[in-house]
TrEMBL record:
The keyword Transferase applies. Residues 333-352 are annotated as: Disordered. This is Transposase. It comes from the Bacteria. It comes from Cupriavidus taiwanensis (strain DSM 17343 / BCRC 17206 / CCUG 44338 / CIP 107171 / LMG 19424 / R1). Keywords: Metal-binding, Transferase, Zinc.
Length: 352
């Protein structure tokens, strides 16, 4: 991304698109009963509350009545339909880490295959976005979940800690290419969840090869444990290398969430908050998803930035936009064109 002398002036920035992740699948309802919805009605209402507070992108996971994360396609369809009816302008972004399971014991256990994640392209009603990881990566969230923050929660249990410590995000090249093909075929926009510079470089190669032909909406994730660590230099290096025409959201963990959101908003980028990222404020006290959104709104206003409405967020994200070639995709995302045969030196962007 390029920064001109007036790039930090709020009048030259997009409005702020706030992403909220209010379902927090790593926590159990007893960990934060005031803010973890369980029934379908509560889960829909949580989306409404977050939208009314200022969030226009809903990062969606679903719970069963026992409080555990759902792996049933039907439950995702039910929640998406409920949210769509209640807040039709909100961007629905389904977390792509889900693998669906059979609805009952009589179904074939094909869910044991990684192929079941492709079923995200079959959701009905279809979401606006599905998050897509690039490159298989370790996701050891326990690395930065300090014991004092886990005291009295379900994640204090050794078995849960062991499971989350060994967690990986499988996203090999064959799977990614097929997943992008299916999502694009269904008209669902991928939102790329990137673990660091290597993932950004792989994504660029996919764009240059014509595997993906759409807007680049990116999230940099600084949670450690196989992802970039929460070091500002990691973030700034990523910002420096990100394409000029992309949108970029910052995601971090616990007490790192607020500082990275403030840095992102100060630079004209976008924040993500919610109990999936942190259930505490900077003083270690419980903080609801709505309170975190309200905090982002206050910071944005202090910086002179306006909050995007749902419809404005759709325009900023270019929801529903696709391109017909690799070259058109490169140009629309502010990237240098591919090298033509025999071309010397660096390929230059077309003059206006």
């Amino acid at each position: 991304m390029q920064f001109l002398d007036d790039s930090l002036h709020p009048e030259n920035m997009d409005k702020v698109v706030i992403t909220v992740a209010p379902y927090g699948p790593e926590w159990m309802p007893q960990d934060f009963p005031e803010d973890i919805p369980v029934t379908m009605e509560e889960q829909v209402q949580k989306a409404v509350d977050c939208y009314n507070a200022g969030a226009t992108v809903l990062h969606l996971h679903v719970r069963e009545l026992d409080g555990k994360g759902s792996k049933r396609l039907s439950k995702f369809n039910e929640l998406i339909a409920g949210v769509r009816a209640a807040v039709p302008d909100m961007i629905i972004q389904v977390g792509g880490s889900i693998s669906f399971a059979p609805e009952d014991d009589g179904q074939e256990a094909k869910w044991l295959s990684d192929d079941t994640r492709h079923m995200l392209a079959e959701l009905q009603p279809k979401p606006d976005q599905v998050t897509v990881a690039i490159n298989t990566t370790q996701m050891n969230i326990m690395e930065l979940l300090y014991p004092e923050y886990l005291k009295g929660t379900s994640l204090e249990h050794p078995a849960y800690q062991a499971a989350y410590r060994e967690m990986t995000v499988p996203a090999g090249p064959g799977w990614v290419e097929e997943h992008l093909r299916r999502l694009q075929g269904a008209g669902i926009q991928p939102h790329f969840q990137l673990t660091g510079m290597h993932a950004l470089e792989t994504l660029e190669r996919l764009v240059r090869a014509g595997v993906y032909t759409g807007p680049l909406n990116l999230t940099w994730i600084g949670i450690g444990g196989g992802f970039d660590g929460p070091n500002p230099f990691n973030f700034f290096n990523f910002v420096h290398r990100a394409p000029d025409g992309c949108t970029l959201t910052a995601e971090s963990l616990l007490k790192n969430v607020l500082p990275f959101n403030m840095m992102a908003m100060a630079m004209g980028l976008h924040p993500r908050c919610g109990i999936e990222d942190t259930i505490i404020d900077q003083h270690g006290k419980r903080m609801t998803s709505v309170q975190q959104i309200e905090q982002c709104v206050r910071v944005a206003r202090e910086l002179g930035r306006e909050i995007a409405s749902g419809r404005e967020a759709r325009e900023i994200y270019r929801i529903g936009t696709w391109y017909d070639s690799a070259e058109a995709t490169l140009q629309a995302n502010g990237m240098a064109p591919n090298r033509k045969s025999g071309q010397k030196n660096l390929p230059r962007r077309a003059a206006a």
